[in-house]
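Hi R.,

Here's the chain you asked about this morning:
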Amino acid sequence: MLTLFGKFCRKLRIDNGDLLKDMAGKLEVTSSYLSAVENGKRNVPHNWIDKISDLYSLSPEDYNELKQAVEASKKVVKLDFTDFSSEDKNTILALAREFKGLDEDDKIKIKNILHKNKNGRN
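And here is the predicted structure, written out as tokens:
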């Protein structure tokens, strides 16, 4: 299934008359690798935002759209737990594992708690 990043790239290719293989060549990867990234089977490499922006001379608006598409398309997120207690790590991981199973009311409650805490710090 095409991710937001994949949709962005497809539109970018169409607008620039490029095929998938053309963009893959510019990114110095195979067509199958680019396709896997666009379809969410692999994360977008961290250097691709600036590389695509440079290759296609993206406007600031398009650059921001690309950044948002990359963030929305991430399948795997790495977290640094260096300063977290074992209990906090376990709580965060439990939330991540169980999040899909929560109903919308519980998700809203969690978001409200997080927003309340974030706003309380400012």
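One quick note: The mean pLDDT is 93.

Cheers,
M.
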